[in-house]
Amino acid sequence: MHEPFPSAAPPIVEIRRVTRRFGDKTALDDISLTVPRGGVFGLIGGNGAGKTTLIKHILGMLKAQSGSVQVFGLDPVQNPVGTLGRIGYLSEDRDLPNWMRVSELMSYTQAFFPNWDAAYAEELREAFDLDGKARIKTLSRGQRARAGLLIALAHRPELLVLDEPSSGLDPVVRRDILGAIIRTIADEGRTVLFSSHLLDEVERVADRVAIIHHGRILLTAPMDEIKETHRRMTLRFGQSLDRPPSLVGALSFEGQGAEWSYICSGESSQLRRAAEAIGATVVGDDTLTLDEIFVSRILS
Amino acid sequence: MQIHISPHDGVPIYQQIVNQIKYLVSSGRLAAGEELPAIRVLAEKLIVNPNTVARAYRELESAGIVEKRRTAGTYVSDQGSPLARRERVKILSGRIDALLAEAQHMGVAVEDVVKLVQQRHAAMQSTRNEE
After folding, report:
1. Are residues A44 and A181 in the same domain?
2. Are residues A197 and A258 in the same domain?
3. Is the model's pLDDT at A262 over the cut of 90?
4. Which of A58, A57, A69, A54 is nearest to A159 (CA)?
5. In this structure, is residue A6 part of a structural domain?
């Protein structure tokens, strides 16, 4: 905890220039992405942006048509044993074997993971209030997500991958999942990669973010840096304007009359100078939520 | 220690933690010598990244509000320090500015605001004495 994340250690995931097409649809378009060791990496994007396709490449479930994917320095398609055994994964559709009981799911999964910690698994089962005798198919949506999370966590993976872990779940289960993310990285050296479109959650728990849109990475940076370099500058002009003058670094604007707000990317001091240069008075200089930054990036 | 994080108001989360702990200390709800929760514990409680809590604690430490002790815990500093006093003046100034702006907007003179502050203080004292 005393070392700032991410550390200088070699990256957990290294994706270089990966392109993936399904028929004539390009799902991933020349994507490069590095996930450093330690910390929480948030992958954000709308529906169909390519988040799940990207995650499937990291898990070796899809082979890169061009470019390369390395996880722990290995190709996950050629070396599934060396990679998958060290990854905990919760899929978006939480595809668990319906016919099994919870206790059977636990012993079945244990067989695949030499590092399975049976005591920890049992602790999680109790914390998540899962009945070992219950069949998976009878579980509620929330309990099913908890069961999926249990088998993703119980072998204490070096990398935890969660695809839209919170979607469609009530606040209590979402809290369990986010709490599990935080506990996972509090154990030194572990890494979490999760995709989400719930940006207030990402803002809370991620320390690094990538925005993916139409199969491309629009922006990837530490969360603090993203927050510091995106601002809402509210400017007042000497007279009423139908359309405000353009401002260096502005992604979008809104307003009327003599007062206009710009969503900008850049440092505060530099944006203030740019505002003065176009003859405006700065009346507001605010940080933005990740949600606002995401929307302005997607639309610009 | 009650802290509430709102991801919707745009203020960075570490800053929200810093502001609220400063407020708790200045208002006496966190007393000198009291121990703050461990980083990991507060991170899990607030559901925020542990590094965010660590950053908030670092800022509070450099502002003289809290101090690390050899036993690895983080404690509220002695409030006699000039930094803490300056911080209290800063917090109050911000609130007074907001009050004065509102009073001006309503057409209430400064003298009347001061009078009202004293009246409220007297009212608060008398209810406190009844307890």
Report:
1. yes
2. no
3. yes
4. A58
5. no
Q: How much helix, strand and coil, in percent to the nearest 5, is found in chain B?
A: 60, 5, 35
| Overall number of domains in chain A | 2
Residue at a domain's end among A191, A220, A249: A220
Residue pLDDT, tens place only, A225-256: 998 899 999 999 999 999 988 888 899 899 99
Residue B83: predicted pLDDT = 62
A1 closest CB neighbour out of B5, B7, B40: B40
Q: Looking at the domain assignment, is residue A167 inside a domain? A: yes
pLDDT for residue B82: 60
Q: Which domain holds residue A76?
A: 13-220
Q: Which of A5, A175, A287 sits opposite B12 (nearest CB)?
A: A287
Of A292 and A8, the structure prediction assigns the larger pLDDT to A292
State how far the alpha carbon of A94 is from the alpha carbons of A76, A147, A174, A298, in Å: 21, 9, 14, 28
Contact A286 B10 (CB under 8 A): yes
**Could you report the predicted ipTM of this complex, rounded to two decimals?**
0.80
- Residues in A touching B52 (Cβ below 8 Å): 207
Same-domain status, A27 and A151: yes
Give dist(CA A226, CA A230) in Å, integer.
6
Domain boundary among A220, A246, A261: A220
Residue contact A200–B7, C-beta within 8 A: yes
Q: Looking at the complex, does the CB of residue A268 fall below 8 Å from at least one CB of chain B?
A: no
> What Cα–Cα distance (Å) separates residue B14 from each residue in A102, A176, B2, B42, B47?
39, 22, 15, 12, 12
What pTM, to 2 d.p., does this model score? Answer: 0.82
A208, A293: one domain: no
| Of residues B10, B40, B48, nearest to A287 (C-beta) | B10
